[in-house]
Amino acid sequence: MIEKTLYDITDTRGIAANQTKQFDPAGNSSDGNNYMTPGTVTSSSTNGAVVREIHTIEIIPPQNSSGVYEDLREVSLILDNHSVQHILTLPGQGDILMTPLRTQVWGGPVFTVPLGTPMWKLLTDKQPNKPLRYTCPKFSRTVGVVVSSTYGVSSQANGGTGYRIILKGYEYTPAALQLLQAAWDGTVHLQTVRRRLDQKPALAFTYPTPGPLSLVTWNAYPGGPLQQNVKINPYWKYARNAQATSPNKPYVFTDFNALAGGTGHVEDTYQDLGFEFGLNENAFILRGFGVKGVALPPGQTGAPGTPGANLARFGFMVNGNFEPEEEGQNNGIYATEGVNPAPFGSVSPYIALDNVFFRVPPLPGELLIYKDNAAPFVVDNGSPIPAFQVAIAINGVLVERS
Would you say residue 108 has pLDDT above 90? Predict the structure, then answer.
């Protein structure tokens, strides 16, 4: 199998403030224009003859005439006419980009940012927990894209660069699916050292497949929009602090008060990073975790100051405990404006390069949220972090069994 381009749009017409723009499988938008990038694909439609999975989403972020990254606030997908914004909401602003163009990833030259393991690797895979790893977004017929902006994105006519969104992945024929079916194993059993010591249960179940892999059942496997009683999906989200932090107090990125958050802590439902799983069978496996001071985009005003200047620590709140426990205090990982162990998005200000980006760093350890309540947090250095000037990015796998 060789990766191919499944969808590719370029928008140089811009986005108005508080506008949402949806692109259909052929790249058409409601404004009557077609945005498919010339010389690439003309449609994402499979015509029902094959099925596809998305391995990577690559975003070239918009900049204004001064080279400042603009407010491409949220990017998501529509798989077979189903929105997946609740599990995949990506930032398109370059300062905090999670899914950059592969040639622009720091440490490259060609580093992909995969959403999961592609299904063709099943044939040689002897590792357990396949349903938790083969989570690339799947579609049987079509994929589209939806974007939004709060403060607007400049058109090329007004000096902006526009933005581009590229989906790459793999295509499978009925014969290929039949071959892969023999290697599929729906058994899940996942445990961590910490949970075992705390005598917490392992995440253990058998994924209820809808039938053998086929054109009909494809989008009901992990990553597909038509999963039924058990849903396993890639989870890629970010959030900004929608309010200023309180001095020396953990700021939790959720609106749920039960998770130590608070009303208005995040900008919208899709940026809520809280997991209230204490009393149900849902689970989240955290795989990537980043934090970044973020400049306000053109058009947004707020408190002055250097983004991230007041950041002191970050981590995950789990059942009321703010982890990990660093020596001397118990409120997360040390991080400052100049020394940040988990940056993502633009490499600036850490490295003096333009349009080069850090990937969301892998979690240095393991965290399974199951029978737990949890959410990420930051702590300031005693001076508040102004609203919208720090962002958290997480990725992993979401299991919904309730």
Answer: no
